[in-house]
Amino acid sequence: MKASAFAYARATSVENALELLTAHGEKAKVLSGGQSLLPAMNLRLIAPELVIDIGELTELRGVVVEGGVLTIGALTRHADLLKSREIAAHAPLLADAVAQVAHPAIRNRGTIGGSLAQADPASELPACMLALGATIIARGPDGERRIAANEFFVGIYETALWPQELLVAVELPVAPENSAHFFHEFARRHGDYAIVGLAAQAIVTDGRFADLRLGFFAVGDRPLLARSAGELVDVAITSPVLSEACAALDAELDPLEDQQATPAMRRHLAKVLLTRCVSSLLGRPDLCVGASA
Ligand SMILES: Cc1cc2nc3c(=O)[nH]c(=O)nc-3n(C[C@H](O)[C@H](O)[C@H](O)COP(=O)(O)OP(=O)(O)OC[C@H]3O[C@@H](n4cnc5c(N)ncnc54)[C@H](O)[C@@H]3O)c2cc1C
Question: Average of pLDDT values for 39-53?
Answer without folding.
Answer: 96
